[in-house]
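Q: what does this look like with 4-methylsulfanyl-2-ureido-butyric acid bound?
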Amino acid sequence: NSLMPRIIKVAAAQLGPIALAETRSSAVKRMINLMQNAKAQDAELVVFPELALTTFFPRWYFEEQSQIDKFFETEMPNKQIQPLFDEARKLKIGFNFGFAELVEEDGVTRHFNTAVIVNDRGEIAAKYRKIHLPGHIENETWRAFQHLEKRYFEKGNLGFQVHKLFSGKIGMCICNDRRWPETFRVMGLQGVELVVLGYNTPKHYPPAPEHDHLQEFHNHLSLQAAAYQNGTWIVAVAKAGKEEDCELIGGTCIIAPTGEIVAECKTLADELILAECDLERCKEIQENIFNFDLHRQPEDYSLITEAKKESPPNH
Ligand code: CDT
């Protein structure tokens, strides 16, 4: 490759479990530690998991809305999270993290599973709200634990945008979104060069426990395919380990546009990995095997964007 490299050094900051009783301030302290470590290794951007500030609360059914709303942020940053933004500004490092967002929009109260990219001046530069919400709506007591994202969140309303940040084209998605090729293709069509995402993926999948041993495989399978098929870097970051009674997979990784994993966490605890991502390398794929202008055949893909026959009730 004769092109001049265009390198962004990215850190993936895996978090170990966050207990139900752990405070936001404690989670933020752990994140600041990882951020300082990332900066010491010259990272420009550090990526944290989905819902990084609290335990993964959709695993419990709560009767009262007030119990649920305790896990949500009504402002970002707010008093407990401010030290993370301050540290980033001091260190001049960007970061991405997920949180539960409670907002009022046009007089309506809305709950989203959200992620933001914060620039190296400590300003929110981009926002994404999770589109593929997995799990179920009702309390299903036969399960070892619940997965009530469909009850507690509504579908994101910001689409899959690509942002010019850190001298590259950067997109976001969250956890279950990574299993859907459409997520990455919509960003691929905007020329995305780096996708950052966080996840909370239980080892046990109650509807098909025969797949439990495949959770780590399906994680990397989806991510590696998406990176290759769109010629993009992907940084995918777990909240891992035994969180309350639920085992979450690790496997935090940084993936090259060729689909190769270039760095991977080895533990299920707070752990940092880094890679120098040369965004020019996206062209190896985007200008060749997956040159969309030359080879895509969208007129034969129309079924993909047709409305579903029967939509579930809008939550
Ligand atoms: N957080 C999240 O989206 N987790 C899902 C779990 C499986 S579906 C119940 C995931 O896709 O990893």
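The first strand starts at residue 7 and ends at 14. The first helix runs from residue 24 to 40.
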